[in-house]
Write a structure and sequence with these properties.
By secondary structure, this protein is mainly β. The chain has strands at about 5-10, 15-25, 30-35, 40-55, 60-65, 65-70, 75-80, 80-85. The chain has one domain: Sandwich (ATP Synthase, domain 1), CATH 2.60.15. The termini are far apart.
Length: about 80
């Protein structure tokens, strides 16, 4: 099983695909997400979102502002500004 991950900025899509792990910086601290994670919504603090794809590739995106949502192995990061780094 894999996570279905989408990272978007206010005006464009940044990255979308399957992943085995997502780590993001929120205002409450770093959050690590694996399959089966409880539903959660958090405010994204400016920083890096690290994604380990299902193929083992590391993807890094810079996300400033916005929120992160997790539900049913679906992770969505909606940021004011975001880009791959």
């Amino acid at each position: 099983m894999a996570l279905n991950v989408t990272v978007v900025a206010a005006d464009h899509a940044v990255w979308s695909g399957e992943a085995s792990r997502v780590v993001a910086k929120t205002w409450d601290g770093d959050i690590g997400i694996l399959t089966g994670h409880e539903p959660v919504m958090a405010l994204v603090a400016g920083g890096e979102v690290r994604i380990l794809t299902a193929d083992g590739e590391n993807i890094r995106a810079r996300a400033d502002g916005g929120f992160l949502s997790v539900e049913n192995d679906r992770v969505t990061v909606v940021a004011d500004q975001a880009e791959l780094v």
